[in-house]
UniProtKB/TrEMBL annotation:
GO BP, sorted A to Z: membrane organization
Regions of compositional bias (Polar residues) in chain numbering: 53-72
Compartments, as annotated in UniProt: Membrane
Native source species: Drosophila busckii
Transmembrane spans: 98-115
Record flagged with keyword Membrane: yes
Biased composition (Acidic residues): 37-46
Protein name: CG14103
Gene3D superfamilies named in the record: 3.40.50.12190
Record region (Disordered): 1-79
Length: 310
């Protein structure tokens, strides 16, 4: 350990006093360096020596140097700088995501604009509407809306229409109107003639065999999409049971099919709604059908009832 420098009393003359200003500065540096070295190493004697050196400097009119300490403002500035530098990558990443999202949206819009737009198919019945002003507008609305939904694939179930008219009405003009509606509907699909199923197609080979009409229906499906089935008043009750399968809209044999049925009623047209009138008339016509089948059969046949006026 280095020898401790001699101490001087308050009244003795310090070596620093006899030195020139330049020499005082040099000596001051050496004394500070020596004392700081030992203080940093934890030497207690060096600490005492530094204190003595400080007193000596003060006696010779030299202010001891204080160890510079960082100010609060400098610490705050450094912390803010660190936060800003940390936030820059996150902000840059967010900006990149926003730019990519905008590019994707614009690309999608351009693709939609450039792709060919599929023209919606229409089936308006405008000519028939003009020729038949006596018919309710509800008839034409029901035909147009539901058939166009089927044409444009907005629905995946057959359209079942039951045309109801009074037995007192002039039947021939109404039959012609129904034929014209079926023909116009066929034009909306493929332009082929409507497919007719007559009473002969519903004749069963044996008592309870109603599978024959179903097989006939499947064969005729190859010919087109629009079916015109003969008057329900003329179909035997047992054979009519085949309509439960033919008019199924939940698990149909074919999806894009329109089926037109006709029914005469002896009930007064003003006695109830078209659906109720059709229901009562069919219960009377098909009373020989087992009760556990009758209601389900009628429900499928009267899916959409359109009342025609003569």
């Amino acid at each position: 350990m280095s020898a401790r420098p001699p101490l001087y009393s308050r009244h003795s003359k310090s070596p620093l006093a006899s030195q020139s200003p330049f020499q005082n500065k040099e000596l001051e540096k050496e004394m500070y360096a020596s004392s700081d070295e030992y203080v940093e190493s934890g030497d207690e004697e060096a600490t005492d020596r530094k204190n003595t050196t400080t007193e000596s400097l003060q006696q010779n009119g030299i202010s001891p140097k204080a160890t510079p300490q960082p100010t609060n403002s400098k610490r705050k500035d450094a912390m803010q700088q660190h936060i800003l530098e940390s936030a820059r990558p996150q902000q840059s990443s967010q900006n990149l995501k926003i730019v990519l999202a905008i590019v994707v949206i614009l690309s999608a819009m351009v693709c939609l604009y450039l792709l060919p737009q599929h023209k919606q198919k229409q089936c308006t019945f405008n000519k028939l509407r003009e020729q038949q002003p006596v018919q309710s507008s509800d008839v034409w609305k029901a035909l147009t809306i539901n058939i166009e939904n089927l044409l444009n694939k907005r629905t995946k179930s057959p359209n079942i229409y039951l045309f109801l008219y009074s037995s007192k009405a002039d039947e021939q003009p109404l039959k012609q109107l129904i034929q014209a509606i079926a023909l116009e509907t066929s034009k909306c699909f493929d332009g082929q003639q409507p497919i007719e199923m007559t009473v002969k197609d519903f004749e069963t080979n044996s008592g309870d065999d109603y599978g024959y009409p179903i097989e006939q229906y499947k064969k005729k499906l190859r010919e087109g999409n629009v079916f015109l089935i003969g008057s329900l008043n003329d179909i035997p009750p047992n054979a009519a049971r085949a309509l439960h399968t033919i008019c199924d809209t939940h698990s149909p044999i074919a999806v894009d099919v329109v089926i037109f049925l006709t029914l005469r009623t002896t009930h007064t047209i003003t006695d109830g709604s078209p659906s109720n009138l059709a229901y009562q008339t069919l219960r009377e016509l098909w009373k020989d059908v087992p009760d556990n089948e009758l209601d389900a059969l009628i429900t499928r046949v009267i899916d959409q009832v359109l009342l025609l006026h003569s």
